[in-house]
Amino acid sequence: MANQHYQLEIPVEALESLHLEAGDSLSLSVKPGALTLTPLKKQSASQELSIRRFLIPTILATIAFAFYILWQKNALIPLTGNNSIATAVIFVGELTGMGAFIRLHLQKIAAETDPVERRTEWRLAPTLLLSIALIQAFASVTLFWAIGYLFQAASFDRLTATILFFVFIGIINYLMVYLVTLISTPFMMSLLIVTIACGVLVAMVTNSQQLWWQHNFSFLGTSKAHFAWTFNATLIIAGILWATLIDYLFVPIQKRLPKNWRLWILRIFLTFDALCLLSIGALPNNPGLSHFAHDLAANLLILGTGLPMLLSYWLLPNAIKEFRFFSLGTALGMMASAFLFYGIRYLSLTAFEIIMLGLGISWLLLLMQNIHTLYTNQPLSYQIKLESQSQVTD
């Protein structure tokens, strides 16, 4: 009796691109009109390792916190404020969370088999680590600011405070360990959107009674606004994260296409915009020289966004038609908004700033997404033969 078997010959280049070796297991999925081969990942060991790496520092930090509050000899530990649970979680969480993230990320880079990819990852590591550290600190401070706003003057006994500290530190450490597996260009784009949206929304809510919209959008970062640091920190962190995203997007592409001058021009424009956004947050719209510098940075951001919009057909000749039309429409929308504000004073300053910021950031994110799609998401295709093998059995 003969058993019929079939064999696929997979090109070496395809195996090397996925870092596969002889003996590795693949999963075969059969769909109507298609066969899909997917490498099987060994997850159990890595999951156990991840649990150890966020649980051990959490336990050690909790023990240190317990000894600290015993040494303080306070019967009640406040939830927020000085010498509180929040203060301990913010500082200790930054140390343990970033420590875990840095260690795992560097191990991930060291384990990279492709020397070009490894050098690229080392090149990108400093800006990435700085961005993640700032985002973690900002998120922790904002979280406990909101908790303190909801639970004012809340205090707990030592045991309850220790348990709460353990829970918060455990969540932070787990998220930072899990974050290592998510780092990619699309994730960085999503993180940038969430950072801007959440930070600006918090600033708007906290200043709603100040009637901030009767002044201007930049009022949220001035000395007259409540918790102006949330708005300014959002723009600063967004600028740094933006610069990190640009590095993450362009460095690998330009290693493959070093002489593509269109990419160099786009990178210069995007980096310039990131610096302008950072400057807007670092230079609040307070009276005096700061007001002049703030307005200058804002106008330069509009200029640095509008020029590549108008030049998008020339800078990205292979982009899809929808993106070109969107670029042209966005540029026309920005020019119309400028005319309605500067020309006939129809728009208020607040409306003008929100429209320009919304259109500009939306287009820049879409631009980076199109660059990522054009230059990095190009699947490799091969033609392979299906060969028949027969085995004779008794």
Automatic annotation (TrEMBL):
Keywords: Membrane, Transmembrane, Transmembrane helix. The keyword Transmembrane helix applies. SUPFAM superfamilies: AbrB/MazE/MraZ-like (SSF89447). The chain crosses the membrane at residues 54-71, 83-106, 127-147, 159-180, 187-206, 226-251, 263-284, 296-316, 323-344, 350-368. It comes from the Bacteria. InterPro entries: SpoVT-AbrB_sf. This is Uncharacterized protein.
